[in-house]
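Lab meeting prep.
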Amino acid sequence: MERVLDVYKRPYNADFPVVCMYESPKQLIEEGRPSQAMKPGQEARVDYEYARHGVVNIFMANEPLKGKRFVEATEFKTKKDWALFVKKIADDWYPKAKKITLVMDNFKTHAASAFYELFEPEEAKRLWDRFEFIYTPKHGSWLNMAEIELQVLNGQCLNRHISTMDKIKEEVEAWQSYRNNKNSKINWQFTNKEARVKLKRLYPSLHD
């Protein structure tokens, strides 16, 4: 935890950006009957019947100090999907960065083996060397600022029934452009000093 919080104290540096990454499933759901829009004196009405059409995975990467985020919907949540998303971070979104610090949880697909299973050894090593990986502790995903961004995405964009992958992609692309144009940033306040007080029970007790 303290290593993550130290990373968040770093000043903005375009050569060494700090990027947070998170992923979460989203159910594809089709309404059984069309919803009725809100009217004066009447709330919106949604029928209780619906049909499930599987699950998609939402990748979120955001650079808190720059106020930028990148979202991608994938059909699966595999090592391959993660490796391809991280390659986009390195080559498409931060091609000029000398080293990218990537904060993420320690999910089993987030490993060096993902690069080597998908790419040739030279390419896998190149990608691995582009990053400094910082893992949040187990049960500590709340330390990942990308989770905050994903909650905003869910609240502003994905908080209703959506039935197709194409519609999900259309919606998240529009939300990404809107939020990036607003230059919305996260004002992170939690520090090691506060952690040692508020989470004192998690630290070992030392006695003479």
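Slide two material, second protein:
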Amino acid sequence: MAEKYLAPSVTKAFQILSLIADSERGLGISQLSKRLGISKSTVHGISAVLEEIGAISRNPHTKRYKLGYTIFELGKRGLSRIPLREVARRHMERLMEETGETVFLGTPNNLHILILDVVESNKEIKITSPSGTRIPLSAGATGKVLLAYMDEEKVHQYLTTKGLVRYTENTVTDLDRYLCEIQAVREKGFAIDREEYLQGVRAVAAPINTEGPLLAAIWVVGFSSSLTDEKIEQVIRSTLHTADAISRELKGKIEG
């Protein structure tokens, strides 16, 4: 078997980009060096190259780095070429019309959920977030759905290592209970978030079966005042129907 090729500089570059992406205020050389456990000179050298190609930019006053426009442009171009996004779009638009709420499409990305597309509600006041946004992997209904269909050993390792963050007073932080809820998702095919990730916000999520390595989910999000217990039942049916329609169309394209 061929030896696995390792490129330390490339790995470190992506680690730097990931840390900067997760920081709201940006990070300096010393902070990056400390968090990564590598020398300042190494961080400086890699950062200089990343800055030169526009992957990061440095504030001349704070000396902190933030993501550059090159990363955003690459991300935008990449998202536009994902077949799943193309297939799902019109189904998402129909689901938004049926429910009156914002509809999201996303997939796991390392320890986060990457939002691939969003169809905003027509309401004046609504829940929204742009494509390319990352949210925690354990966030609400979407997290339960994606974790339910990932490798069980990896899921257990993730949950025991990272722990369950309490986002609101309704967040499930007991590991055994959370694992039971994930099992329920496997049996029912959907998950509900009753103000577990954002206070005053509810959601319904369902998996998209791509029958391949790509795992994805679609979810409907709205304020609790709108997504009442009665309405959620209808939203569940519509979300499941939409997820199934996307799955079937995607399967047809793959086989075709």
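Talking points for slide two:
The first strand starts at residue 56 and ends at 58.
The chain has two domains: 8-73, 82-255.
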